[in-house]
Amino acid sequence: MLPQEAYQWQYVEGKMRHLASRWGYREVRTPVFEHTELFLRGVGDTTDIVQKEMYTFKDKGDRSITLKPEGTAGAVRSFIEGRMYADVLPCKMYYLNAPIFRYENPQAGRLREHHQFGMECFGGKDPTVEAELIEALLTLLKELGLENLSVHINSIGCPTCRAAYHKALREYLGGRLGEMCSTCQERFEKNPLRILDCKEEKCKKITAEAPSILDYLCDECRQHFERLQKLLEARKVPYKVDPRIVRGLDYYTKTVFEIIMQSGREGLALCGGGRYDGLVEQLGGPATPAAGFGIGLERILMELRSQGKLPEEPSVIDVYNAALTDEDRTLAFSLTEDMRLAGIKADCDHAERSLKGQFKYAGKLARYTVICGGDELERGNVRLRDMQTRQEEEVPLGEIIRRIGSLIGQKPTTEETVKG
């Protein structure tokens, strides 16, 4: 990310922080790397992330370390080690601009190092948690300007009812196992549910008529899923029940969901999440229901750029203080520092440019330019120029900070004084 792109990231991140605070989520920051065991136990050894995409290495103490391939496992570890389960629940956390590392073929919106925004809720077993997360995601994407959004939801049950579905799925797929890709053949015994997530066309055709897990849900999981649908309908959230959504992580239970944006003939999955009621206990904590989602910043920025939904780049500074002569440079520098202390973004010449050169430089960065020196200074004034309209006015030196503050709509943060 280059400096001229930073404002775009800050704009999106600002929207995300504001949204998280409105929903009552507080920020958590977890390490860039964790012990490899955390992801083997949490993410699951049948996932593509663990099998193919993790950056794993030994440190100097011969410990296996992995660069973080997703955000939830680290958030769960922090929840356990911070003993947050002993506080008032539910505990709501979000992470932002968290670097995620996956060794996969780089493609549009997918980079080997990318960044995610995620919201995780611990201690809420009611489907209002998933409904809340889904509406938060939709609100964020709409406030960013994205349109044609829909929610795809599914229930993948719990370990109890999933066992019966695995048996039915193996029976359906067993006769055509040799026709499937090598990855799906490996998944057949370990986790046949993941076969439904395969992107290979031949595997998608084979599973097109596979049994639906929704027909195998236990009473608790079915009631949970039905209540989620009622909640979404009450909020008029457009959704579609999609039995093929299983997500790519082993820790999910019951609800899984994705936000789809229609783009051309196909829908683009912008983000997703779901419930993971067993993960906290699996990683050594007390039994705690939980749910969350993750969304890639690069993917969102790519869509906003392509649709022209990002704001124009703001001025780097509010005002540039130009010096008419070398003798006026001290005043221009001192005025710049006083403006900064007053909360105004300001700069001055650091390259000994001519006045013409200073104006050329200021025209690229600032909305206003203050010219220090000449007859105006002898009268105790400076000249103020609007770099967009080219209009100028003469302002008393002692009033210039207040004048700039009024123009940019900012209240000064310190006493407005100008030395010298």
Task: Give the uncertain stretches in residue-range form.
Answer: 412-420
Estimate percent helicity.
Answer: 25-40%
Number of DSSP strands? 16
What gross morphology would you assign?
elongated
The CATH class assignment of the largest domain is Alpha Beta
CATH architecture descriptor text of the largest domain = 2-Layer Sandwich
Count of separate DSSP helical elements: 15
Q: How many structural domains in the coordinates? A: 3
User: Can you list the strand order of the major beta sheet?
Assistant: 1-5-6-11-10-9-7-8
Report on this structure.
The chain is an alpha+beta fold and 420 residues long. It folds into three domains: 3-156 and 237-306, Bira Bifunctional Protein, Domain 2 (BirA Bifunctional Protein, domain 2), CATH 3.30.930.10; 159-217, no CATH class; 317-408, Anticodon-binding domain (Rossmann fold, 3-Layer(aba) Sandwich), CATH 3.40.50.800. Helices cover 37% and strands 24% of the residues. The protein contains 15 helices and 16 strands. It has helices at residues 6-22, 36-42, 48-53, 72-81, 128-143, 159-173, 182-190, 201-206, 219-234, 279-282, 297-306, 329-341, 355-365, 374-378, 400-408, and strands spanning 26-27, 33-35, 56-58, 64-67, 91-101, 113-122, 149-155, 239-241, 253-263, 266-275, 290-296, 317-323, 346-348, 366-372, 381-386, 392-396. An eight-stranded mixed beta sheet has the order 1-5-6-11-10-9-7-8, sandwiched between helices. Strands 13-12-14-15-16 form a five-stranded mixed beta sheet, sandwiched between helices. Strands 2-4-3 form a three-stranded antiparallel beta sheet. Strand 3 and strand 4 form a beta hairpin. Helix 1 runs antiparallel to helix 5 (128-143). The two termini are 41 Å apart.
